[in-house]
Amino acid sequence: MFRDRTNLYLSFRQSYTHHPYLSSQAAPLIEGDAIELDMLQPGWMDVTSQVESQLQAITSLIGQLAPLHKKHALPGFDDRSAEEREIEQLTLQITKGLHRCQALVKKFESLSRQLDQNDQALVKMYDNMKVAMAAKVQDTSSMFRSMQSSYLKVLRKDPKFASTGSVEQDVQLSRQALEQTQDLLQDEQDVEIRQREQEINKIAQGILEVADIFKDLQTMVIDQGSLVDRIDFNVETMYQSVKDADRELVKGERYQKRTTKCKIILLLSLIIIGLFIILIFRPRRHSVQAEPSQPVQPAPAQPAQPAQPAQPAQPAQPAQPAQPAQPAQPAQPAPAQPAQPAQPAQPAEP
Hints:
Keywords: Coiled coil, Golgi apparatus, Membrane, Protein transport, Transmembrane, Transmembrane helix, Transport. The chain crosses the membrane at residues 264-281. It comes from Wickerhamiella sorbophila. GO terms for molecular function: SNAP receptor activity; SNARE binding. The chain has helices at 6-14, 20-26, 43-73, 81-113, 120-157, 165-280. By secondary structure, it is mainly alpha-helical. The chain has a domain at 43-202: Methane Monooxygenase Hydroxylase, Chain G, domain 1. The longest helix has 116 residues, at 165-280. The N and C termini lie far apart (164 Å). 10% of the residues are buried. The model is unreliable at 31-40 and 161-165 (pLDDT under 50).
């Protein structure tokens, strides 16, 4: 028996009191009108933006330094210590900016180490970004180095600036910039060398795989060649066998025709021999040999006798009673006598 508890359940549900703290606890932590935070940018984008901002700042500083170099290279008798200090500050700022760019470029290596090495596409992207940023830094440092070298050449030509300390500082800064450029070039060359080594290893592996494939193909070609030779030999043998079989069939057909004819001839010969034997051993009938006809000799004429007187008639005898008929005896077949050959008729005597 089943009990109906529906009414009891409805009464308990209606009498249940809702607590406000439970509803507040069940409420979601994020309201419906809340704004989700954007996803953070990957590390390489941050580093790239920093490198580009530094390069823009360095380019602007180089643009400010170029007219100062030209102005300072012009001959004059005024006090140019302020210009020299400004040139030194700009050169120092540019050198520090290049150092920061170099450090940011090296930061790509640490970021690439943190990646999953199994994801080759992402690792290669980081390497490409590093090479691209290093190339941009190298171009900027090359431009700054060429400007510094041309400025040094101008100062060396002027004996008035030969013993100044600013020239030595510029030379030192130029050396530092050159060293930084060489470091960047070395890093870039190392990256390229590693990439080339990886490519060479891949090419070597591909060559080994191709060599293995060619070995397999060579083995297959040799096997196929032997199979083709066997097939050719089998085809030639089958062709010769078919020719021999055709020849044998022609001979067999000819022999079969001849055999039929020979059988017919033999059968006829046997029939003839059998008939001949039957004729030889057939029983002959005994026939009465016909006697030779004797020549009829003429009888001598007798003289006529006188007629005798007639005798008186005798009285008739009484009739005898009829005898009972005897049963007919079966006719005995007369044995067939072989026919005697007829004697040749003798000539009649005269």
